[in-house]
Amino acid sequence: MPRQGDRRHSPRVELYERIVAAIDDGTFPPGAKLPPEPELAALLGVSRPGLREVLILLQEDGVITRRQGAGSTVNQLPPAPGLERLLPVETLLGPGTVRCHRRAVELEEPTDFSGYHLRLAPAERACFWETVVEVDGAAACFAHEWAADRSALRAADPALAAALGDPPKAPARPGDGDGPATTMLAAFLDTGCALTARGTLGATVLGKERGEAISRPPETPAMLLTQTVSAAGRPVLAAKYLFPSGAPLLSLTPRR
């Protein structure tokens, strides 16, 4: 699940948005199979290598599922209430001693994922947090969370901008901020602001960087939850939550 740092108006981002728009307008509805890569590339007027890169990103973002020999299928929207009940990862992971370790805090230019889901203009900046959530001392989730530009957060609710703290002057290093920490979603929920969300579930692998962080092979299977959280009618947070195999089962019942 690598973060891609290209500007929103790169050809890859534009292709990503074209495919998502075709899904949103019903051209490729949830549950439908996308055309085979040669056909889809010809339909969109792009190269097959470029299309394949974007399909990989769409799978990582939970939009589609790709299976070798079976093609790509548009993921179904999750049924309500399910994961549409807005709960932080710390609660979803159920009982146990939960601790968050902040690995990165950065101000970023729009990426493929954050630019689309947060509707960021090229000049806007997203605040990015990478947090490892442990349960009973074992890594159970990698949280990659992007907040909308601070001006947009203040317009939705000033408390959301305040929840992020001061803007970072430089990227945090892995291991910084090992004191009390939370996921960004938990910080936003603590403000009491009225928030709504939509999300998707998909499958992926842990990857090299995250595998090295917890001494697991990069090909370790993982579940991917993506969420877009909105306040006052506009998206304020976009997130990818990666749960490696062996993580506790997600609990949809709030802990007391």
UniProtKB/TrEMBL annotation:
Cross-referenced SUPFAM superfamilies: Chorismate lyase-like, Winged helix' DNA-binding domain
Gene3D superfamilies: Winged helix-like DNA-binding domain superfamily/Winged helix DNA-binding domain
UniProt keywords, alphabetically: DNA-binding, Transcription, Transcription regulation
GO molecular function terms listed in the Swiss-Prot or TrEMBL record: DNA binding; DNA-binding transcription factor activity
Top-rank lineage group of the source organism: Bacteria
Residues covered by the HTH gntR-type domain: 9-77
InterPro entries for this protein: Bact_HTH_transcr_reg, Chorismate_lyase_/UTRA_dom_sf, Tscrpt_reg_HTH_GntR, WH-like_DNA-bd_sf, WH_DNA-bd_sf
A Gene Ontology BP annotation from the UniProt entry: negative regulation of DNA-templated transcription
A Pfam family recorded for this sequence: GntR
Name listed for the protein in its UniProt record: GntR family transcriptional regulator
Organism: Streptomyces albus
Source taxonomy: Bacteria, Bacillati, Actinomycetota, Actinomycetes, Kitasatosporales
